Amino acid sequence: MCAQLLKMPSGQKEVVDILSGMKTLDGLSPIQLARLARLDVTRWGPDEFLIQEGEANIGEMIILLSGKIYIRKKVNQSSGATYEQLRELEAPTLVGEDSFFTGLKRSAGVWAKKRVAGLLVNHDEFNRMVCLDKISGAGFIKKLSLECQVRAEKTLNLYFGMLKLVFNREKIAREFFYCSAMENRKLLLETKGDVADWIEVAAKIMMCTREINNALEDLYHFANLPDMKATSVDKSGFRLSPDHQFHRVMRSLLEELDNAQKHVSLGSLNMKETLASIIISGQESGRIIDYQLMVSLLNQAYSLAMSHSAELGFTITVLDVSRVEDKKVEEGRSLLWD
Questions:
Q1: How are beta strands 116-122 and 41-44 bridged, if at all?
Q2: How far is CA 337 from CA 53, 90, 107, 108, 146, in A?
């Protein structure tokens, strides 16, 4: 094998040197690295996208060989959509493996500020490479799955911590994501199969991490909605249709505001906490709470209160101040985007 590497053209030899130094690829055999090095080197930039957020998966991942890339995510705000830079990655690194293994659309955009170079690996080339040494190939996919699992569990801890803050609860029952993460950890420990089996495990873990990240994104969105304060209450002004999805929630909010103004200043009432308490109280019936659903409802209900308060029997003031984003939230959002 070493002799084969020495006979390579200098360009391919340099690529092999880069690949052999990547921690993610260190389980691959020399002949597998040599196979990857035969791929044409693709160059991007400056200011060119390697991956567009939301684009359909075309069955490729990128091994970045040189340069620096930036991960950005579309963020929907009340003022419109903006794009936020999540993190920077320097070569050598793997990009887009999430969509490669799951078949899902791209979860974030990847662009090059300056020139970068990398290898585009499609499914055919990947399969040819792993089949050259199936034991090493299975080991590589197992390691990739383990790295993804570690990131998923870190993000899951952040997710539960944020749930406690948003819903003001000391304890959050273990729910779907926790069970899925533990099942995936068990798969990592017990799977003894071949390449195909490990590809299936990798896809399952990456699918789970994508779902956790999306749930965290919903929490992040709610945490960064503008704060609002109620300024007056008129129960006779409630005109929301009884058939409306949030009729009960908004009626309860109006009652809370009406009762509160008899004892404290309306401006002292935290509207986010109040609305979260109302929504979750309507779901507790001895069953495990679907917090992902709760957060989705909370985002919708809060946006409704901001935009249609005149129909809900109260007036509000939306605080127009610059919000400082929680650093922990920001770190969490950068953990899993591919």
A1: antiparallel
A2: 10, 15, 6, 6, 16
Question: Does residue 332 have a pLDDT over 50?
Answer: no
Judged against a pLDDT cut of 70, whether residue 110 lies above it is answered with yes
- Return the CATH fold of 2-133: Jelly Rolls (2.60.120)
Distances (CA, A) of 246 to 196, 201, 222, 255, 294: 47, 40, 17, 14, 13
Residue 214's nearest CA partner among 108, 71, 87, 89 is 108
Centre a 10 Å sphere on the Cβ of residue 124 and count the other Cβ atoms it contains.
Answer: 9
Neighbours of 32 (CB within 10 A): 22
pLDDT in tens, 156-215: 999 988 888 888 776 676 667 888 899 999 999 999 888 999 999 999 999 999 999 889
Left, alpha or beta for 218 (phi > 0: left; psi -120 to 50: alpha)?
alpha
The pair of three-digit structure tokens given for residue 191, joined into one six-digit string: 């799977």
Instruction: Tell the residue number behind the tokens 């946006």, with chain if given.
Output: 303
How does pLDDT run across 24-35, given as a tens digit for each residue? 898 899 999 999
Residue 169: exposed, middle, or buried by beta-carbon count in 10 A (0-12, 13-18, 19+)? middle
Phi, psi at 289, each rounded to 5°: -75, 135
Please tell me the least confidently modeled range out of 110-114, 312-316, 327-331: 327-331
